[in-house]
Amino acid sequence: METAHGTAVRPRLDQPRTSRPSLISLPSYDPEAFGRLSERIARFLGTGRFLVWMTVVIILWVAWNTLMPAVVRFDSYPFIFLTLVLSLQASYAAPLILLAQNRQDDRDRVNMEQDRDRAERSIADTEYLTREVAALRQGLGEVATRDFLRSELQGLLRELEERREATEPV
Known about the structure:
Elements: H1 31-45, H2 48-67, H3 80-142, H4 146-167
């Protein structure tokens, strides 16, 4: 390697190479974008709209190749080309659907783990609150409540009134 001034530049050993030259340059792709695209296609393949459009195309194909003059027909009776097109569509649809299902399984697994974590936290919170309520009940068992004090004071008041009445001269 040389710089603009003609001096040789030695590679730095403390930094990784940015890229390694290869004999075959494969195109790079974003797996997440490809997965999203495959899910969109798989969702469309699973709709009634797709079935209607596929049926319309097949009916038009068969009608064109049976009712039109022989000069403009492009696929004669056994419809070999139509079979090829449908086979090609099926051969691409199956892996795309499987890829979309795998991605959905991964999302479901993550959601299940999050739900399990939430449930564990809820159980721990419930157990904590149960222990706190039990501690409060124990504490309240030892503390006089307002109703208890009121009834005791009313009893003492009655007792005092009875004693006063007993000691007063008539």
